[in-house]
Structure formats: C-alpha cells, structure tokens
Design a protein that fits this description.
The structure holds two protein chains of two kinds. By secondary structure, chain A is α+β, with helices and mostly antiparallel strands. Chain A folds into two domains: 16-72, Arc Repressor Mutant, subunit A, CATH 1.10.10; 84-164, Glutaredoxin, CATH 3.40.30.10. Chain A has helices at 16-24, 33-44, 49-59, 63-72, 92-96, 99-110, 155-165; strands at 84-89, 123-128, 140-142, 145-147. In chain A, strands 2-1-3-4 form a four-stranded mixed sheet, with helices on one face. In chain A, a hairpin with a 2-residue loop joins strand 3 (140-142) and strand 4. Chain A is elongated. Chain B folds into five domains: 2-75, Roll (Ubiquitin-like (UB roll)), CATH 3.10.20.740; 129-271, Alpha-Beta Plaits (2-Layer Sandwich), CATH 3.30.70; 280-353 and 551-739, Rossmann fold, CATH 3.40.50; 355-545, Dimethylsulfoxide Reductase, domain 2 (3-Layer(aba) Sandwich), CATH 3.40.228; 783-894, Barwin-like endoglucanases. In chain B, strand 1 (2-6) and strand 2 (9-13) form a beta hairpin. The longest helix of chain B is centred in the middle third of the chain and has 19 residues, at 294-312. Classes of the chains: A alpha+beta, B alpha/beta. Chain A binds chain B through residues 1-7, 49, 52, 56, 62-68, 71-72, 78, and chain B through 157, 161-170, 177-180, 187-188, 419, 421, 424, 819, 829, 847-851.
Chain lengths: 172, 897
C-alpha cells in the first residue's frame, strides 16, 4: 500500500466528496467495485485517478486491481470523455452501406482519431460493432439518439445541429 | 485422508490437497508455469492439465482437489497433445530471443519447449511489440516476454501485500500493469523483487545482473544477509569474483524465499571504490593519514596499547565490537580485551539498541533473548507489535505479521506513536505519546487484573511477585493512562481483552520499546503482560525483540558486553572467571567493565586513554554525537577496524581495513537465536584482512599467543566454554543452522524458550512505575523528535548508501511532520526546514504527513548530510544506558533560504 502523504490531489476540479458520498453506501460491502465505478463514472463521465485512489483506500482493493477491472470492461473510461459520444456503427449492413467513409468523414471533420476526444471536449468518437438499426444503415448513435441513412456529406450538418442544441448531458 | 490412483499407483492425500500435490508425493513430475506453493492456485497456464477418469475435460491438477477413488493419468497422449498445443499458443506471442536472453538456462518456458519437443508455433503473433520498461534501477520489465501466468500479480498481493501488479485490458491485449501504467517508482513498489523471483520467463529481470553472465556460469553461495536481525538466508550468484545477483531459497528459514530491497539489491557496496584497502596511520588526529604496511600498523598498535596498559593500567582501555561482525569476531574481540588487555571494558553496538532487551528479559525471565521463532508469528491469534515499524525496519518479519492477519485471521494490536503501515492491518492502534510505554502497559495489566482475565494457574505456578504487581498497577486506570499516554481508555480496555482472551498471543517489539529512559522497564512490562496471561513458553506466544542489526543477538551471546562472558556467564562469578582464566591461560579481571556511554565519560575525565572500535560508527550513530566526538578526540590512541572511512574512522590514529560479510566465513545469530553459517563468496580485496586475523596478529604482537586457522576453530573454542553452544559446530550448522541453546552434539536446538520453567526458575513480575522521558517538549522546544529506520537504508548508511540501485530510489532524508504542526509553522512538503535541539541543529527537507503524531516529528539517521544524532540525547535507559533516541525535544523552523 502506497505511502500516505498530504499532497495535492492529482486531478484538478474533481470533487472527491462526491466519491465519498457514493462510497458511503458501500461500507464493508463485498463485490462493490463495479457498482461504485459505474456510479463514479456516472458522476464525472470517466474514472479520475484521484477517485480510483480513494476507492482503493476505502474498499481495500489495490489501485492496480481497480484499473485492471476498469480496463477489462468496455464501459469504463480512464480518460475524460466529450460531452457527446458518437458511436459509428461498423456492423455488416452499415459496412456494406459505406460506414468506413462515414467514419473517415467524422474523423476528418472533428480532427480526432477513432476512440479519442476532440480538443474542445465536445465529442468523443468511437466505433461499435452493431447498433441493431440495420434498416437505417449506415447509422451512428450520438448520446441516446440514432441518426440513420447517413451520407458523408450530411454528417457535418448533424454534428453542427447537436453542437448548436447545446445539450451538455454527459453520456452514460 | 482420501486415496486415489495416479498413473495406476495408489496414493493417500489430505482432502485439501490438489492432484498436483498428490502426484508430487509419488515423485511424478507434472509441468507448471503458473504454480507456486506459496500462492493461491489459479490454473491459468493449463500446463498442468491431466486426465481424470469420468471428467468431461482435462483438469488443471494444480487447482483441482483430490477426491476418493479418483483415477488420474498425467502423461496420456491426449494430455501430451494438449500441453504441446498450449506451448505453441504461448510461444506464438513470445519473442524468439533465447540466444540473447539472460533467462536462458533458467527459463521454464524454454525448459518445457525442450521437454515437449515443441520447435515452433503454427500460430502467429497478433500483438504489437512494446518497449521494455527500463525506468528503474532494480527491476527490468519486458512485457513482450510475459506469458501472463500471473505469479507476479499474486506474489505481490498475497506475500508482499503491496498489490502493485494487476492484469490490465482483455483478450489479446491483456498485459500485466501497475495502476495507470505508472513507473514502478511511482506505483508504491517497495522493490522487494518478489515478482522477479517468481517470473518463469525473462519478462521481469534483476537489472544489475543483466548481460553479466548466464546462470550456468555462476557459482551459487549460500550465506546470511548482513542487514537487519531477521537474518534472511541468501543465495549469492557469483561469477569470476563478482556478485551478479542475490536470490533466496524458498525452503530455507526464516525467509523462505522472501527478501527485502536491501537483501536483494543492497549488495553492491562491497565493490565500492571507497573500500579501505590499506592500513592508515598517523601520530595525531590533526595530521593526514598515511598508508602503512600491515607489519608497521600491527607493530604500532601493539606497542601503543602495551604502553598505555603499562602507564595507566588495563582499565584505561576500552573496546567496542560490532553487531555486524560475526560471532567468531565478537568472541575474539572480548577475548582480546579481557585476556590481552586485562579489562572488562568491552561493549558492542547492541548498547545503542537492544541492551535494554538483554537487561529487561534477563531480569524477568532469566534469558535476554527472543523466546520464540519468527515462523511462530504466522500462527499467532493475537499479535502485539510495539515500537516496531516492522515493514520498514524488518520487512521480511512484517510479511509474517501481515500473513497472520490477512490469511490466518489474527488480531493485531499496534502500539506506536506513528501511523506506521501495519496500522492498516490493526484491530486496535494505541497511538501513545512517545516515551509513555510503561504507563500504557501498566494500563493493560490493570485492565487484565481488574477484570480477572489473567491466567491464575500460570501466575501461581510459574511466576513471583504478583501481589506487588497488582498493587503497583492498581492506580493505572484507563482514565489515568489516557491522561498520561493520550490513548483513549476504551482502546486500552479493548486491547487488554483481546490479548488476554487468547492462548496464542505473541509480542513482537522493536527499538521503540528499548530506546527510552525506561527502556529496560518497558521490556519488563511486556514480559509482565506475557506472563500474567500465560502467553509464554508455547508455540505462537512469547516476547520477541526484533534485533536491529544482523548479529545483535550473537554479539551479546559472545560476551561482547562489560559484565559477561559467552552466553551471559558473569565475569564476577568465581566459577566462570576461573573457567575462562584457565582456558585463556591468564588471570582475568573480575570487576565488570564500563558500558559504552561510561567509556566516553571516562575518556573525558581522563581515565580512559585508548579505544579499539570494530565495525561500528558511534561518531555518527550514538546519541548526542558532539559529546561522543569530543570524547574520541581526547583519546591518546584510537584504532578503528572498518570497511569504509566512517565518521569514527576519521577520528582514529590507526585505521585497519577489514573484509565485509561476503568475504567471510563465520556465523551470525539472528533475532530468533538461529546460528547460521556465512560462506565466503568472494576474495578479500587486496590489502585487507579478516577482522579475526587482525585481532590475532595484534594479540601475538603483544605477546599473547592467539592462533586459529579458520573461524570454525574459534567456534570450537566457544562451544567448549559455553553450555548453550556445546552442540554447535560449523559442520552441524550447514543447511539451516541451529537455534541455541544446543546442549550437546545430538541436541536439535531450542526454538521455544521457557517451556516448563523459566531460565531463572520462576518468572519475575517486576512492579514498575512509569518514569517520564528525560527531556520533554516545552515552550522553547515544543516538539517531540523520534528517530528510526527507513526501508531503503540501514544504520549510518555506510553500506546501503553505496548501492547505486538503492541510492537512486532513496537519496535524501526528510523530516516527517504532521499537517497540524506544519500548518502552524507554514511548512509545506519539500520546504527546507531547520530542526534544532538543545544540543545541535540541522537542515533537512520536510514531508508533511499524517504518519507523524501531532506534536511529534521523525527523522532517520542514515544520511551523513543529515546527522540526526547531533540532536538526540540526553536521556538514557536507567539500567542499560542505551540512549533515548526515541524522545528528545526540538523546534522546527522554515529556513530563510
């Protein structure tokens, strides 16, 4: 277990009292790591290092183990994510209907590579295997909404609309 | 017991045993890559699969328990095919680098590829290669070679309890990583090297040994670690006179394969260019040294010592020997002092650490040694750890404490003002004010006696003085003790009930008990606690000092003390005096000699004129070093036998260069009284001599014949004069050594003392009042200073600081201060501060931490740049005169610079 000192927390702007509050429901509970991580991610949009260290201390599970769990499951993220999460479908139907081009266009427009977040923290671009909306192929999902029958020259407009609507709900 | 059949052979096994263990009983070899008997089986590598009749699939023998009537086939065609396929899969993701890999020859994957004749793999590698991690000086990590057996993850968690490693990511991308892939230095790693020791392939390697030689080129030499009193068994890997690396034998006590950073990576000091290589002499300490031949130096020492003896009498001489030296060297030092110089002015550096243990335990039990073995810790139900930051000062003993708590359900009571790491494992933490040990233990005794929790039968049969003890502790109510110690009364009651409520209660303590004005009293108080609860004389009980230096036990056993010969035979006992006088062919003095602090006093008074100091650096490590140095400067003649130019050697007239422990044959005795062989691994550096040879040369030059061909002859002499060592010889010590007393040549040794009767007959319950420390904080010096040890270093740092690996991890001292005190003084971490006591002052960086008790600061004394002992003193143990390192008053100020 790491040496305890009173140094400044590593992530600026992370309110650890929110993590404490989440943890208070899981005192002495076994198997609490995943539900705690889900709630903490719900709070911050990702899992900040200082939050993981605190969870480690409170649940008596090492930080390395928690990071191991977080990297095993696709649902957890260790780096901050954008306000909006774009999931480009690359399933069979979308692939046939030109998903690769859509993905390339998005990447180009947003100036961000797949899996990464734009500099202004507005969009995170990800690929998914299938969104189950094959009849609308090619599709992408932005936050909770499906956008179908895309074409590489129309995705720009969709993004613009989302940006203007200004929804700042962090994604799941 | 259940019986099963393996390859048609019947075997009996415990129901908790696995198929693998049962097969091992029959001598059947089943291959494994992820198995280690110290770790929970996970069945990850699938190499140990076997066919079990009736099972749907092959089963992992390392993780499957035996059951009645099982029929197992370990090497069927199906099994062999599966293992080959498995090896192909592993090999597909492993670089074909055996020609240049340091692991070649020891690699278990390589061995199995050979055994199963797998030449290549039909599968292709999908993983991009990664850069090896070369970010720290001790552990080299190449994840391309990792086979994901998970042994490093489990040993770091289950044995070392650090849990730095974990599986990260999933599928083909799975790797072993620290949290957030941080470099080891920032991950909380303590560089014990356990992970390296279990890695079956070349993924984790001891960096200092890389590219220096292959396993078959090295000679393996078993010896004993030269650092703390745990006395770990080591295996040195030696090539052409150079030590490449250090490992440990998993079957050998007390460490069973475990080592700490000092044991594993702290060996390079022996080849430091700073080693002394020639005798140095000068007439006066203001002059520079000049190199001299051994003949000239020996002649000078002999002549000077004879002159002083003739002019001022034998008692003008004093000798200090080393708890880092071997038993044989300590024996010769006291023989030289008594037989050649004719005085009992003999002491050793145990005076500044565990002399109160010898005094206190002898007064209570009759023997000044640990009562039980270190292995007993693991089976204890309740452990009291008092005044011992075990994880840093005795790391391998701490592993046993953690195992007792984490794996065996023991309750831990920590008595310590600092929030040491073990506090995280404690059921109760008694955070007392420094120096209030006796009051606190009296409080525990009070609760036990008041609530009738004592072992009345044990007290009646085996102890004396219970009535006085009752009377003395009766005023020490939890309320009153809370007032003195600052420990909440309810915690005192809780701790007392826990300890008194078990028949397997073990006390482990360190210098936090002994280095006080009431140090010996503290030890006696702990003995009271053990005796009134009957927690002594059986396995997993007793009272066990963790010795500071590797041979503190041995140096005291060998009679390097002012009042006793070997194994505490008193110099003023006419029978003992006669025995030794006859054996040594001279008339020995009967008057007990001076203890170390008395020697300095006598020097300043002009009574002591010459000192001989062997492998000990009091000018850096004694309390109040200004006082000590001024005494040394006043000596007419000071001889220092050393491996490096220490602070003490700088004040000498003659410095004699000696060998270090890798270069020696001899024996060490660890904290559990285990006498063990050191085996010489490398040659003495040119120009140096063994300590024992030097003593003999001087004795002979002074006209006293002293001749031995080998240290084993010295041990033969010790055995002939010491009943407890009568059965000890170098021949019998081969292997794991013997635990004294060993009464005759067939005696197996005595791991548990005081079984049916105490050494002194009845155990003495000493009735003791609490005595406050000599110097308490006041308005001018408002903070307590306690001193102690850090994980990475040892004593004056002369050895540990000369290891490039360790030095690069920990290279400077810092004063630990609580946020409350730091806040009031406007001090932040890394600020330079000035720490001042009535005796001296120093500058050091600050570390603001809740580890420190509010009102107390902490410093180690490892770093010459931070000479902590200019501050310490002035108190000393009332009986043993050990300095009160754990309490003095200081003030801390922010440096103006």
């Amino acid at each position: 277990m790491a040496t305890k000192t009173c140094e400044q927390p590593k992530d600026k702007g992370i309110d650890l009292s929110k993590v404490e509050k989440i943890l208070s429901d899981y005192k002495n509970a076994r198997g609490a790591v995943i539900p705690v991580l889900q709630k903490v991610q719900g709070e911050f949009g990702y899992l900040p290092e200082s939050a993981i260290d605190l969870i480690s201390e409170r649940l008596n599970v090492s930080s390395s183990e928690i990071v191991g769990v977080s990297t095993f499951y696709a649902q957890f993220h260790l780096i901050p994510r954008g306000q909006h999460i774009i999931k480009v479908c690359c399933g069979t139907a979308c692939h046939v209907k030109g998903a690769t081009k859509i993905a390339e266009k998005l990447s180009e427009t947003l100036e961000v590579s797949m899996g990464m977040t734009t500099k202004d923290n507005v969009f995170t671009l990800e690929e998914v295997a299938c969104l189950g909306a094959c009849s609308l192929a090619p599709v992408m999902m932005v936050d909770e909404d499906i956008h179908g029958k895309l074409a590489s020259d129309t995705v720009g407009a969709v993004l613009q609309k989302i940006k203007e609507s200004g929804t700042t709900q962090p994604s799941e | 017991m259940v019986s099963l059949f393996i390859n048609g052979k019947k075997v009996e096994a415990e129901p908790s045993q696995t198929i693998l263990q049962a097969a091992q009983k029959l001598g059947i070899h089943i291959p494994t890559l992820c198995h280690d008997p110290r770790l929970t089986p996970t069945g990850a590598c699938r190499m140990c699969v076997v066919e079990a009749e009736g099972a749907r699939t092959l089963v992992a023998s390392c993780a499957t328990p035996v059951s009645e009537g099982m029929k197992i086939t370990t090497h069927s065609e199906l099994v062999m095919r599966s293992r080959r396929l498995n090896l192909e899969l592993i090999w597909s993701d492993h670089p074909n680098d055996c020609l240049t890999c340091d692991k070649t020859g020891e690699c278990q994957l390589q061995r199995l590829m050979y055994e199963y004749d797998v030449k290549t793999s039909r599968f292709t590698d999908c993983n991009p290669s990664s850069r090896p991690d070369d970010s720290n000086p001790a552990i080299y990590r190449d994840m391309n070679k990792c086979i994901l057996c998970g042994k490093c993850v489990r040993i770091c968690d289950e044995v070392q309890n650090q849990h730095i490693w974990a599986f990260s990511n999933r599928g083909m991308q799975t790797s072993i990583a620290t949290a957030f892939e941080k470099p080891l230095r920032e991950s909380g790693c303590v560089f014990c090297g356990h992970c390296v020791s279990v890695c079956p392939v070349g993924a984790l390697m001891d960096k200092p040994a890389m590219k220096k030689g292959r396993p078959w080129e090295t000679r393996k030499v078993r010896t004993v670690c030269c650092y703390c009193g745990v006395g770990c068994s080591l295996v040195l890997h030696v090539k052409q006179g150079d030590i490449l690396k250090v490992t440990a034998d998993t079957h050998s006590p007390p460490n069973y394969g475990s080592l700490c950073v000092k044991g594993r990576y702290g060996f390079e000091f022996y080849r430091s260019p700073d080693r002394l290589k020639s005798p140095l002499i000068r007439d006066h300490i203001d002059q520079p040294f000049r190199e001299a031949s051994w003949e000239e130096a020996i002649k000078l020492v002999a002549q000077k010592l004879m002159e002083i003896k003739q002019k001022y009498g034998p008692d003008a001489f004093g000798c200090l020997s080393s708890s880092r030296g071997t038993n044989e060297e300590n024996y010769l030092a006291q023989k030289f002092t008594r037989a050649v110089m004719g005085t009992n002015n003999m002491d050793n550096c145990a005076r500044v650490c565990h002399a109160p243990s010898v005094t206190g335990l002898r007064a209570a039990l009759g023997s000044g040694a640990a009562t039980n073995s270190l292995a007993d810790i693991e089976g204890a139900e309740v452990l009291i750890v008092s005044g011992s930051n075990t994880t840093e000062a005795h790391p391998v003993a701490a592993l046993k404490i953690k195992k007792a708590v984490r794996h065996n359900g023991a309750k831990l009571i920590v008595i310590d003002p600092r929030e040491i790491e073990l506090v995280q494992y404690a059921t109760v933490w008694l955070r007392l004010k420094p120096g209030t040990n006796v009051a606190l233990i009296n409080g525990l005794l009070h609760v036990i006696l008041k609530e009738g929790l004592e072992d009345k039968e044990f007290i009646r049969q085996r102890t004396e003085n219970i009535d006085m003890l009752r009377q003395v502790v009766s005023p020490y109510t939890p309320e009153k003790v809370e007032e003195i110690t600052g420990v909440p009364g309810e915690d005192i009651i809780k701790a007392a009930r826990i300890y008194a409520g078990t028949g397997k209660g073990m006390i482990v303590y360190g210098l936090g008990m002994t280095e006080h004005k009431a140090g010996s009293h503290g030890v006696m108080s702990l003995a009271n606690l053990a005796m009134i609860t009957g927690n002594i004389g059986r396995p997993n009980t007793g009272i066990n000092p963790l010795r500071g230096q590797n041979n503190v036990q041995g140096s005291c056993d060998m009679g390097a003390l002012p009042d006793v010969y070997t194994c505490y035979q008193k110099v003023d006992d006419p029978a003992a005096n006669k025995k030794f006088s006859e054996a040594w062919n001279c008339q020995l003095p009967t008057k007990p000699g001076l203890k170390e602090p008395q020697m300095y006093k006598a020097t300043l008074e002009g009574k002591l004129k010459a000192m001989y100091i062997i492998g000990y650096d009091p000018a850096a490590t004694q309390a109040n070093i200004h006082h000590v140095k001024s005494a040394m400067k006043k000596l007419d003649f000071l001889v220092v036998q050393e491996i490096f130019m220490t602070e003490t050697a700088r004040l000498a007239h003659v410095v004699l260069p000696a060998g270090c422990f890798f270069e020696k044959d001899g024996t060490f005795t660890n904290a559990e009284r285990r006498v063990r062989l050191l085996n010489q691994a490398i040659q003495l550096p040119k120009g140096t001599k063994h300590d024992w040879e030097i003593m003999c040369l001087i004795a002979n030059a002074m006209g006293y014949p002293m001749h031995y061909n080998h240290p084993k002859e010295i041990m033969e002499e010790v055995a002939s004069l010491t009943p407890e060592f009568a059965g000890i010889s170098f021949k019998r010590l081969e292997g794991d050594g013997l635990v004294w007393p060993v009464w005759d040549t067939n005696h197996p040794g005595t791991p548990i003392l005081h079984k049916d009767t105490f050494t002194r007959g009845k155990g003495k319950l000493n009735d003791l009042l609490y005595t406050p420390s000599e110097e308490l904080p006041d308005s001018s010096y408002p903070l307590y200073l306690t001193t102690g040890r850090r994980l990475y270093h040892y004593n004056n740092g002369s050895m540990s600081l000369r290891n490039p690996e360790i030095h690069s991890i920990s290279s400077e001292e810092f004063v630990e201060i609580h946020p409350d005190d730091a806040g009031a003084l406007d001090i932040k971490t890394d600020d330079r501060v000035r720490v001042t006591s009535r005796r001296g002052s120093l500058e050091v960086k600050a570390l603001v931490t809740t580890r420190s008790r509010p009102g107390s600061v902490f410093l180690s004394f490892h770093f010459p740049e931070t000479p902590t002992n200019v501050l310490t003193g002035p108190g000393e143990d009332m009986l043993a005169l050990t300095p009160e390192y754990k309490v003095c008053a200081v003030k801390v100020e922010l440096c103006a610079c």
